[in-house]
Predict the structure.
Amino acid sequence: MKKGVLKLAIIVIGLNLIFVYIGMEFLPQSESRPPKVIKVEAGISQDDLISVGEEIVFGKGQCMVCHVVKPEAGMRAPAMSSIGAEMEREAKERGIPVEDHVFEALVNPSKYIVKGFEDMMSPVQTPPTSLTDGEIIAVAAYLQSKGGKVTVSYPGSVPVLKAQIAKAGGK
Amino acid sequence: MEGAGVQKGILKGIIKFTAILGAGFVLLAVLNRVLPMATEDGYRFFPVIGSRDWIWIVAQLHLNFAAFVLGVPIFAVTMEFIGWRNKDERLDRIAYDFTKLFTLAYTVTAVMGSMFLVSLPILYPKFTDYMMKILGPTWWLYLVVMYGEVLVCYYYFYSWQKMKDRKGFHVTLGILLNVLGAMLLLITSAWVGFMTTPAGVNAEGGLVSRWAAIHTHMWIPLFLHRFVANIVFGAGIAAAYAAFRFITAKTDEEKAYYDWMGYTSAIISIGVSLLLPGVGYLLGVEIYSFNEQMGIQLMGGFFAWLWVMQAILIGAILFFINYYLWISLHKMPGAERYFKYVKFLFIILLISYAVWLTPHDVALSLEEARRTGTYHPALGKLGVMAAKNTAVILSYLATFLSFAIFRMSNKEPVVSWAKQGHTARAVIIVVSALGVLLLGIYSYVVPAAVRVKVLSPIQFGLFFVGLIALYVLDNYMYKGARIIGEPRWGKMPERSQYALIAITVTFTWLMGMLGYMRAGARQYWHVYGVMMNTSPDNYLPTHGKASVIITIVTLLFLFLVALVFWSIMKLEKVVEERRKG
């Protein structure tokens, strides 16, 4: 009986050791920390603005959770590789300025849904994403840089952004 | 224990619970006076391991015991009912054994609950105050229902022998116990639901509608998921208890009984677990509809690798139960006819396991994301939901076949259409498996929404239809079948019992991990999007650290469970000696 109980204890502890070993040695070890506010300086150059935007798209903004880099079957949200060109075309079809269209896609994404996709994106200016004005403009610059002409600037585009946020019902 | 009067037993139980709860409240009041004030943003710090890890361990331990004491009564009363209607003494005995288990475990649950009751307001006073402001009335309701539950639990247990002739009333008590248990689960699910998918509050976090704060996206699906998981978990612990008793049994009669108890509990556990993907799917749909980002983050973001870990754990559980069933064939006269199928089932399980384990590539850096995109170039095709769903369903189908083989292995059908029946069996299995496979392949070329909302449910539907068809066909075909020989209960090698224990250990670890993932979905928020966590612990730890905490919880929990088992054996010995003396 004692031998049986001992074996049992070995199995219980052994299995736990195997699981914790897998967790520590086979799984990637990174932490997920709260995002920090990325400071966007007034008058930032276009290249730097795009670069900051890219950092947010691939990090704090969590955009790549749904979007993909290149188009692929079954993708949940439009691919990033030509999104700037696509947005220019859509803005033209809608007859509105490109900047309005790009900002609207970020702060009021339910307003216009690209054909073939679902209404699933949450606005980026409210929690949990909570991007600042500068960060949103940087993301817009990055999106436009993907096959389109970058027209946004910081702080030049703040009034257009604010107008779109107001239309979305925010402050 | 049986000798104690019903009233005395209930009174003892109520006093015990009041003492545990009272001690908690007194300790809370004392600590609030003695300890330094909380920081400006509302935190106190637990020494050495930190507040977050302390709360994590205490909450998960409480949750594990709560799952156990809410899950086991469901099938205890079911067994009692079936035993009563079929006049089966053995079922009544197993139901009583289950009741002994959960009644004793109630005390440990209460102690853990009391520790949690003290820890949370001391370490996170601002957050606790906020939760009380929003959902305070539900907490008082929780206390009332908990007292009701304790009262009925002790009444149910202590009146077992006295109400032998009033089974109808006793079974009703058992049902009432489960209704109260379900209410407790509903209340606590509302709290977690509000923290994860909040509603009923304005942008500043002020209460707008209490009912909306209770009736969140997550509330009912989480309740259903926990309800089913509690049965699976409770049955798993009962199987472990039976295995423990089998290993320590001294007579053949004891071995036979605990072998049968282990088998029954394990089959309930695995059988009910078939419902988990369905209720998990409902929960997932609600999380996605609350916030798509949270859903995807949970399924494919930071936690993506923990789903691979989940596959490792569930795959292991399926291997353990299949191994147990294959060993069990040896106690069935006539089972030799089916030995040849075991290797095929093993191969199916192995291939499915390999596919299930294939990770979906998760880029860990900006550079990697730029280089590889979302999916791994080579393994990406196997790492996606289309392949994994198919692999999971085929594993479960193979497991069900192991069970069906075991059930029928000592019987020979005598119906005139037995030959056609066997052909029909084969057709059902092939159609079901092929259908699941083809739908899985087709899933690759359809949009995500069609895959998730249409094809996956059809795959699961096809699997369940196949299962039900096989079950019904077998029941008709084997009605009045010739019995080749009765199962030789108790004639099992000890290693079969280790497989049962392994199932419980793995399931406990799995529960700890999924509990962490569910809580981690909130990321750095106490209440998602409403109340930010600004403590030094407001980050998700590495998977390694999470694994360490989950292991500590699992080992502590199993140690306490072993103490419960040991206490039951001690009590039985005392009762036996009293009877003799």
User: Anything to note?
Assistant: Chain A has a mean pLDDT of 90. Residues 7 and 13 of chain A are 10 Å apart (CA to CA). The longest helix of chain A spans residues 2-25. The helical segments of chain A are 2-25, 46-58, 83-94, 98-107, 133-145, 158-167.
